[in-house]
Amino acid sequence: MNIKIFKSLFFIVVFAMFVNPFSGISQVKKDIRIEKDIVFGESVNFKGENETLLLDIYYPTEGVAVNRPTILWMHGGGFRIANDKSQKYIVAMSERFAKRGYVCLSINYRVRENPKDDKLGTMKDALEDAMKGLNWLRENSEKLGIDKDQIVIGGGSAGGMLASHLCYKDNSESEKWDKSGIVGFVNLWGSPDESWGNLPIDKNDPPTIIVHGTEDASVSFSNSQRIIGELNKSGVKNELVAINGAGHTPTRHMDDFEKNIASFLDDLIIEDYSFKSLKQLKRQHGLQDPFLKPDGQRVSTKEEWQKQRQYIKAMLAHFQYGEMPPVPKNVIVKETLSEEIYDGAAIRKEYTLTLNRNSKTLDFRFGLIKPNRKGTFPVIIKNDRSINEIPDEINLEAIKRGYIMCQYIRTDLSLDDKNIELTRNSGVFPLYPEYDWGTIAVWAWGYKLIIDYFEMLDFIDIEKIVVTGHSRGGKTAFCGGIYDERIAITAPNSSGLGGTASHRYFELGQDEQTIGHASFANAHWWTPEFFKLAGFESRLPYDAHFGKAVIAPRAFFNAHALQDYWANPFGTFLTFEAAKKVYKWMGVEDNIKMHWRTGGHAQGVTDWLALLDFSDQYFYNIKVDSNLEINPYSTVKVPVYWEVPE
Predict the structure, then answer these.
(1) pTM, 2 dp
(2) What is the pLDDT of residues 285-296, one digit of tens each?
(3) 411-448 pLDDT per residue, tens
(4) DSSP of 48-104, one letter per residue?
(5) How far apart are the C-alpha atoms of 393 and 68, rounded to whole Å?
(6) CA atoms within 13 A on the CB side of 113
(7) Residues 439, 414: contact at Cβ < 8 Å?
(8) DSSP secondary structure code for residue 545 in this structure
């Protein structure tokens, strides 16, 4: 066997017995239960006859029967009569992924005697039926025990072509359908050529994995290569599993490509984890083990770590940040200023981004200073109190080095007021009343809004995004880097409690900034769950090194002042060293650095220059004379009592 193997992460979730509410033929196999021939719609076929549309459902039979991810499968067969939802490899994939914790649906759709005589009409009929299946799934999501916001579309051969239309086709005024909740697309040797209809791919299309034999004589492998190229141009996450030398329907390689698909989907599916209450949490000894999985076992491979990253992100959202909503696609951005500054060396631009939701409107302001020359440039984004807070000295140095400096006004998104009622009735909160996020998460969401817009600008190098902020802004930058994979360098500055400092370890004799203090001074910053832990910090199942670790392998840079005791430099150092063990285990030890200076609480010129130095090193491999290797606590024993996996 000659197959291009991508390392996989088994996505194993077990679920409880689910009582089927629909009529159909029931069948039980080991670990799964199948319901067959369930009616989901009716259509008029090419003969002018009414045709009943049927589907089969494959359920896991263990665990909790709510909020499961689902895969909607579409069979192949060339759109010809006598092909249906019981196709062998679609049945096999449905059974395999039901065992992995997905609810799988395999649907019928209209087919024809001679589909190639009218390809566009054939595709139009099949697409209408596929949409009926998708809508039926959504309408019955509660009964099915699935999460309608975690739907994967899958298809093989002709079904892959059909699924491509479902996932990629434009949502124009003349042809409207709802693609919400589709988080991924699995295409098995079914990439269409243009004779089946034009498919303009854009950045809003779902992440895609394609499995295809390189010697396929029925559906050209070049079709998949072309689609992968379009996905790359649009910035859509994708993976091509090329089975070298294989022809059409290479099912003998299923054991391998199933793992590839499971690993790919694992990064897209957010599991509904259950976290312990305060009474159930146990006192921690030393800095907590980031490799400890929710089932009590430890991560043993780098593949398993990818799943662990999602678990840690969910943990941080539960205990501290709350859940961020997805970034809306209907925002309006207006450029309000464009002028030359610094004797023509740079251009200053200012923008207003308008959000509309829940019958509410919000204006969010940001600005940037870019080199006044052609090209694409890396950008450093700082959350702040105004658009013009960065010193001219730093702006000029950044322009000289070829960086764009950007700032946004975080208080446009949320007031910075400990009066929770006042804060919750202002900013972005009324637009998203169903979300439980705190102000730090709201401010961090601003990075997502801006980066989304930057993806459309021709002078931004979207692969070189740096986020920073100071103090509460550092906490915000840290949160932003955890939850946005597009951020290349996360660079919080002196962020203290709830940022990069430990919740539990402080320098002897110095004031200790605790959760209890924050509950009085800044109760709006985080969720109520966080403040329940005031006085019980030793029970927290995580510390700041968890957030740093999940940013890996992307870069993490932390600037801090040694006498900034309230921001806890000692606790920041300890969690930095713990996270550094994870970076080293991943083979990217140079991607995590700290910069120390004497002095107090500020993001000063020295801190900015160190960030520019690190960015030059990381992006361009430029060696600079900087104190990024200084360790002011070299004699301290770091309280880490766990080892990285072998």
Answers:
(1) 0.69
(2) 999 999 999 989
(3) 999 999 999 999 999 999 999 998 899 999 999 999 99
(4) S-EEEEEEEEEEE-SB--SSEEEEEEE--STTBTT--TT-HHHHHHHHHHHHTT-EE
(5) 53
(6) 2
(7) yes
(8) H
